[in-house]
Recover the amino acids of this structure.
């Protein structure tokens, strides 16, 4: 697995991270631990979670995995979106829901409204910061996290001096090594974020539908750690990503050799295209897809380690995708944070 120094920090991690959003949500405890152990065996050392992931239980299973490994990995978590307490019958229904979603994908889309109601957003008081971090540390079975991100905050949060004063004290105390913000690019790499000096990292959705925004990330990478999430555009973005790859393969300006590679359409092609156009020469330090299934995990690792594309081909692809993104007739699908 390729590794990289994380921006201005002294940390180093795999360029492919493990997004923990599906742990204890779409995946059972057994499947979650199996995926985490497989990722570790394949050289992945960056693990990204949040208080809200897995209905509030993702950190618990990640903490179980971290026993005996804590000093070998980089761990990031988030605060600001909290899981709402669930009755016992709702927890018991998860196993059935996981099987239903696996065999009837449309059911997952139909359940989004109900799922969204189980989270409380925009929770950014100093008291919630303290409580949320302490709960994260307890569940993760550690006394510090490498990164703590504000999770999808509104821009108005940046005006809360008391909150950022508390964040600075927490970093100084060693409970958090680096603070950051997880949001859309309009906020996550804005001047307002740079003005809050405690924010040393940004987590940003980067995928085939917004590559035209990445041109300035190299400059930001010199000042902060850049983590890309949602590389495949979320549930709605996977099919759209495949379609966009096919579209680029047929463009007149694409070299014949590159077009032939894009026409192969094997199981690993999308991962190879997506992950490499995000990572190579963009300033992004690591990308954190959610990958519970073994075939997805192996395909993503293989895309990094054994890519079929040269640097020149990846540059060409990134330019073509960015050009498509600016054409209104192929507007990108809506992808969430």
């Amino acid at each position: 697995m390729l590794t990289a120094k994380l921006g201005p920090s002294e940390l180093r991690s795999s360029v492919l991270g493990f997004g923990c959003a599906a742990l204890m949500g779409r995946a059972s405890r057994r499947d979650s631990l199996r995926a985490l152990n497989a990722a570790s065996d394949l050289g992945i050392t960056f693990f990204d979670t949040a208080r809200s992931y897995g209905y509030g239980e993702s950190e618990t299973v990640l903490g179980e995995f971290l026993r005996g490994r804590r000093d070998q990995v980089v761990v990031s978590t988030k605060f600001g979106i909290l899981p709402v307490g669930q009755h016992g019958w709702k927890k018991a229904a998860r196993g059935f829901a996981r099987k239903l979603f696996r065999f009837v994908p449309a059911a997952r889309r139909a359940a989004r409204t109900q799922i969204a109601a189980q989270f409380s957003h925009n929770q950014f008081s100093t008291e919630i910061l303290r409580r949320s971090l302490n709960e994260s540390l307890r569940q993760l079975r550690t006394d510090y996290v490498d990164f703590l991100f504000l999770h999808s905050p509104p821009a108005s949060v940046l005006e809360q001096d008391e909150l950022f004063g508390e964040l600075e004290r927490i970093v100084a105390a060693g409970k958090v090594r680096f603070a950051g913000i997880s949001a859309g690019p309009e906020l996550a790499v804005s001047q307002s974020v740079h003005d809050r000096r405690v924010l040393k990292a940004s987590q940003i959705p980067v995928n085939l539908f917004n590559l035209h925004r990445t041109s300035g990330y190299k400059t930001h990478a010199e000042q902060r750690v850049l983590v890309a999430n949602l590389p495949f555009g979320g549930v709605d973005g996977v099919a759209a990503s495949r379609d966009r790859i096919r579209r680029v393969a047929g463009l007149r300006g694409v070299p014949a050799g590159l077009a032939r590679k894009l026409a192969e359409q094997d199981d690993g092609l999308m991962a190879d295209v997506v992950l490499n156009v995000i990572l190579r020469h963009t300033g992004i330090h690591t990308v954190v897809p959610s990958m519970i299934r073994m075939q997805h995990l192996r395909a993503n690792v293989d895309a990094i380690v054994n890519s079929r594309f040269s640097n020149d081909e990846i540059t060409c692809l990134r330019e073509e995708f960015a050009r498509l993104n600016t054409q209104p007739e192929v507007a990108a699908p809506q992808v969430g944070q």
Notes: The chain has a mean pLDDT of 88.
